[in-house]
Amino acid sequence: MKYCLQCGMTISAPRCPKCDGLIAQQTDGSTVQFDIAHQGETVREALANLERWLDEARRELPRFVRVIVGTGRIRGEALAWLQDAEFRGDVIRVETAENNRGQIIVQIKP
Fold first, then answer.
1. Residue 16 is assigned to a structural domain of this protein
2. What is the pLDDT along the chain (110 residues), one digit of tens a residue?
3. Is residue 77 a part of any domain in this protein?
4. Whole domain around residue 37: which residue ranges?
5. Which strands, in side-by-side order, build the sheet including 31-35?
6. Dihedral sign of CA atoms 77, 66, 89, 8 in order
7. Number of domains making up the chain
8. Would 103 disulfide with which of 6, 7, 45, 97, CB 3.0-4.6 Å?
């Protein structure tokens, strides 16, 4: 069950009936993290996991997703996939972490 971040009311509709807040545009500003590259995944499996985790994150309240991709082939394919998603407008921004090449930071749409 979701709740409105503006007034705290438990809701199941696209708009809060109490304060008229648009629920799909609310975010708590947090960052969630998931690893797609360190359990022996193939590139295909890693990209399928990436898509699944992003879909799950979109249903929650975070603003950012930190994707752990390692430094090998999965990293290159995941970065290309995410940059394409950014170009299509499916995510707001994609950037590699400054201090860790094995991480990609994605700003998701609320």
1. no
2. 677 777 788 877 778 888 887 776 777 777 889 999 988 999 999 999 999 999 888 877 788 999 999 989 999 999 999 999 999 999 999 999 888 999 999 998 86
3. yes
4. 27-108
5. 31-35, 64-68, 103-108, 91-96
6. positive
7. 1
8. 97
